[in-house]
Fold Proline--tRNA ligase.
Amino acid sequence: MKQSQTLVPTLKEIPAGADIASHQLLLRAGFIRQTASGIYSFLPLGKRVLRKIEEIVRDEMDNIGANEMLMPALQPAELWKETGRWNAFGLELMRMNDRHEREFALGATHEEVITSLIKDEVKSYKKLPLTVYQIQSKFRDEQRPRFGLLRGREFLMKDAYSFHESYASLDEMYDKMYEAYSNIFTRLGLNFRAVIADSGAMGGKDTHEFMALSEVGEDTIAFSDTSSYAANIEMAQVLDQADDDQSGEELLPLDKVATPNQKTMEQVADYLKHPLAKGLKSLLYKVDETFLLVVTRGDHQVNDIKLKNFYQATTVELATEADVEEILGAGFGSIGPIDVKNKEVDVIFDFAVRYVVNATCGANQDGYHYVNVNPERDFDPEAKYADVRFVQEGDPSPDGKGQIQFARGIEIGQVFKLGEFYADKLGASFLNDQGRASTMIMGCYGVGVSRTLAAIVEQYHDEKGITWPSQIAPFQVHLLVLNSKKDEQKQLADQLYANLKAQGIEVLYDDRTDRAGVKFADSDLIGIPYRVTVGKRADEGIVECKIRVSGEQSECHKDDVISYVKSLLS
């Protein structure tokens, strides 16, 4: 491809509103352009990279027997209403009416559409298992589109769906998809971790997220420093065990003391001169329609995702101040698990509370706290304990190997075991080998193709521009002619361009009349792995070859260029 004949509009300055490296560089290097907030056009270079990512995805999907298809982006509201997600999905679902006032949504995901289709087409266990996938644009009305391709309102995604007659069959495909995703992201050159995750609005139970490690990632990964354990911070387990430094101090008598105007855990700890870990934090939650008092150590944070999963609830939210006053008789900062007068309020303690000694908690009376609280003595013997807090760095790893550390990550893929939720709601059944009707069991699996492109740039760039891995770079070689007005340079560059193309090597030929400095700067910015420069020694048949990522340069005779490039590509 000749650069003079393609659309590569590079920019010298960082565009306004581009806060992270991938957004800045993809704009500056002419890979994308913003059409509206959270909506981007992929220019020729960007489209070439997308296509190469798609080819790797298709290759791995084909290897596990998945079939490619294409579903409509425009979906009837009736399907979403049957599963209950028309309202549950929230404001991110883009909705519209046609001229006849029929309701539709732009596809944020395709569980409803594919389940409805398979329900009509597959009637017997003999057609199962079946796995289909598509690569298609998805639409979500993000409240704050930002970070370029990482959080947009339109994005490219590979979504796959599997249908089974048994959970054993689903488990088998889940493992195949997990391995296929690992292969995809390895082939793309990404530094990633597969982490235990929450299924959220997708439904189902077991799920893993694939996270590209990056400081700009919006998710926190908790991982072991000595094993392969990794989980989204929302799902990372905390073991039921005492801290290593747990004291053996003598249990002191329970006492109620005045703590005037001390409302936060920090204020109470300072006032009573004890560490934050000696305080017990009590928060009143509304879990579906039931009020629940959740008690953790003062230095720990309640994890509402764990609460939701523990109670298999639909909604979990903090109670209002008015609710707290009415139900517990005191305001925020003075409530606690002792002498809860409202017997309809359930109480749950985090595991760590079990091991506190001579702690402090609210007395359910404004301006008062109990001191020398000891759970075994002062709490109900039937008290309920569970893992309801966020893991912290330094906690023991749940697999018993090493300690937990944190890292930031960009979600680039996720695999779900959906079970029977969608099939049951939409009536997708089949006749089993006994001739009886059975509900189909489903899995779904997504790769954010455009997000993955941005994640690669986050991991592959330097101060000059992008440093594409060769397997997905828009071209393999960037050929520069420094002065196209000089015949010997132009003739040699044309010859090399023809020879490289004849050998099946992808080459972008910068034949523009711009200054050499502009061409070098654009080449570094675009980030094609290998550069061949035709300059002053063209009359001798000598060119300069450069490896983009290392900056290594060498002179090469024109007759050796092909073999040199092939050796690098191999």
Notes: The radius of gyration is 30 Å. The CA atoms of residues 5 and 552 lie 29 Å apart. The chain has a mean pLDDT of 95. The chain has three domains: 16-237+406-457, 255-386, 477-569.
